[in-house]
Amino acid sequence: MGKNIVLIGMPGCGKTTIGKLVSEKLQYGFVDMDQYIEEIQGQTIKDMFQEGETFFRDKETIACKELSKCSSKVISTGGGVIKRSENIDHLKENSIIIFIDRNVEDIIGDVNIYSRPLLNEGTGKLYELYEERYDLYKKYSELTIINKGSLEEVAEKIVSKIAISDII
């Protein structure tokens, strides 16, 4: 049974799309943590945020604990999963954590940021979150992958780095 591969990074950095590609290449299951939380709660992330960010973060922590019991999964997290160190503690029990690093300008060019609950305030908020979170992403990840080039190339880079380092 292999370790999970957990992808962390900013909203819009490509975690979900890259995660699906990596899961196909490794023949692992794929879990989008936000979707997992929505299914369990029967609410959208947006609706949970309307009850307060703390409400959502509590649900996210429960999901981290539950998903840490899985194996051979690629797990795409929400961008703020790193805000609580206990989330990372749970995930590290049976996972390698990979930071998908993508510059903010590329995210702004590709993603409808207004569809993301924490980014409704516009691009300034995205820069603010990047400044706030970048060091945490670096601190908690065992591997950093720059999202430049095609998503297929980024996924292949992840698979290659994992194979070389023999970490799963």
From TrEMBL:
InterPro entries the record matches: P-loop_NTPase, Shikimate/glucono_kinase, Shikimate_kinase/TSH1
Binding site for substrate: D34, R57, G79, R133
Reaction catalysed by this enzyme: shikimate + ATP = 3-phosphoshikimate + ADP + H(+)
Family matches, as CDD domains: SK (cd00464)
Signal peptide bounds: none
EC number: 2.7.1.71
GO BP: any one term: amino acid biosynthetic process
Gene Ontology molecular functions: ATP binding; magnesium ion binding; shikimate kinase activity
Pfam families, per database record: SKI
Recorded GO CC terms: cytosol
Cofactor binding note of this UniProt entry: Binds 1 Mg(2+) ion per subunit.
Job of this protein: Catalyzes the specific phosphorylation of the 3-hydroxyl group of shikimic acid using ATP as a cosubstrate.
Subunit structure: Monomer.
Protein name: Shikimate kinase
Provenance organism: Clostridium paridis
